[in-house]
């Protein structure tokens, strides 16, 4: 694996060569497949993704994942041998993927620069958040395409309708299709839906809990809106998102609005430098929230941020939230 810094012109030339090789290379070569021959079946593959249409002549061999949920989708599909790097983990990688993850180079604790990204010589970059392809930082999808690098953005960032578990299914299936391993997607989805089905059975007939999601913020509250997977996740866990009318995956609301809607519980998203207990103390001391039932009763639930965005953690997050909201159903 190349880790040194090289002149940008040489890096661009290398990346372009990778694309040319991808168009003409042997379909029998793919490190991430069950067998080389099996992985080549079904190629070329053409997929539309967030406004970009890409034709893959063969599975990527040197993929880079940006953001944890993108990384874990790839690891869940057993694609670590096709990965040249990762970046921007929010929480610890799921235990079942730790061994594979440790074998992959971490390019940056947050986003790598464009030049650093190119040192991994990727032929495919998979971003979880739209910020992964920030034009101002030089990592736009167009810039990467000009360097001969194919890209994919998690479809929660460009929804064509409500983001639900069906959207999760599509994301997992399409990533698997890019790498020529559709059977792995079906195995993974069967496991994920088994968790959802079990939770659904336990919560049958339960009275939903009115929820406010607190991500962060002191002057305003950054919360889960109605355009992300959070709504379906909350509903399946036996809750109601009080800010589902915010027409974004995440958005800012005032603490006075929170008080007016009187949530029965607060779900705290855990990530970054601000600890959960610090967030709790802030909410408990906020004068606008003193009469809110969730605050009076100190009723909190906690989920890691990486479990609340479109990826393979969502079903387990549904179960975790359901257990915290309705513990009597899980005894």
Automatic annotation (TrEMBL):
Keywords: Signal. The keyword Signal applies. Gene3D superfamilies: Nitrogenase molybdenum iron protein domain (3.40.50.1980). Pfam families: Peripla_BP_2. It comes from the Bacteria. Residues 1-21 form the signal peptide. CDD domains: TroA_a (cd01148). The keyword Transmembrane does not apply. SUPFAM superfamilies: Helical backbone' metal receptor (SSF53807). Residues 62-331 form the Fe/B12 periplasmic-binding domain. PANTHER family: IRON(III) DICITRATE-BINDING PROTEIN, VITAMIN B12-BINDING PROTEIN. Belongs to the bacterial solute-binding protein 8 family. This is ABC transporter substrate-binding protein. It comes from Streptomyces kebangsaanensis.
